[in-house]
Specification:
single chain; about 210 residues; mainly alpha; 11 helices
Length: about 210
């Protein structure tokens, strides 16, 4: 099967958020005046995220949550920033707090699903991601991650359906093509899988 030969088909790079690295011993750059002058901890946190200063953003989000414990934007921002920093248990805790307050907000379900996926809790991740696409049928990232979760669960039929939907919403998604290749491999269609891997490389090269 072509999946077994996949050393020649590396997956597209993960382009998720990250934090700018400092050289050892280096001091963080001074904050811009606009950040220092932000009228609220939440706005300061959002500006810090935009600057890639995620650890400082966490502190600002925590201050926003302390000031208003049921503020969903602050809880969501805190959870998603902790996710970006790889602090998955803490991220899940904050996102579940947000979910209790706003159970129909698609982005809370998405960030929680992404966190559960990172923790390799694929059945629970799939539940959250299915809820996202129920609430927001045009969410391409949710369809992609749902397809990847179903691949991990050994459900290629569901994975193919989700990934094809992701590509209808976002046709130039190299990662979706790659994940489709895996799903077709697992369904016993190596030629179709090879075509998906080829398309993934072509899209990634553009």
């Amino acid at each position: 099967m072509s999946e077994a030969r996949n050393a020649g088909n590396p997956p597209p790079a993960d382009d998720g958020p990250g934090e700018a690295e400092l050289q050892p011993g280096a001091e963080p750059a001074p904050l811009p005046e606009a950040v220092l002058a932000a009228p609220s901890a939440l706005e300061r946190a959002e500006q810090l995220v935009a600057l890639g200063r995620l650890r400082e953003a966490v502190e600002a989000f925590q201050a926003a949550v302390a000031a208003e414990p049921e503020a969903v934007p602050a809880l969501l921002g805190l959870g998603s920033t902790l996710l970006a920093l790889g602090q998955y248990e803490a991220a899940e805790r904050e996102l579940r707090r947000a979910l209790r307050i706003a159970p129909t907000l698609p982005e809370v379900h998405y960030q929680l699903g992404a966190t559960l996926f990172k923790r390799a809790v694929y059945p629970a991740a799939a539940v959250e991601l299915r809820r996202v696409v129920e609430l927001d049928p045009h969410h391409p990232s949710a369809y992609l991650l749902l397809g990847e979760s179903l691949n991990q669960l050994g459900e290629p039929e569901g994975a193919i359906e989700a990934l094809e939907h992701a590509l209808r919403v976002q046709p130039e998604n190299a990662k979706a093509y790659y994940s489709l290749g895996i799903a077709y491999d697992r369904r016993g269609q190596p030629e179709r899988a090879a075509e998906m891997y080829r398309r993934s490389r072509e899209v990634a090269a553009r």
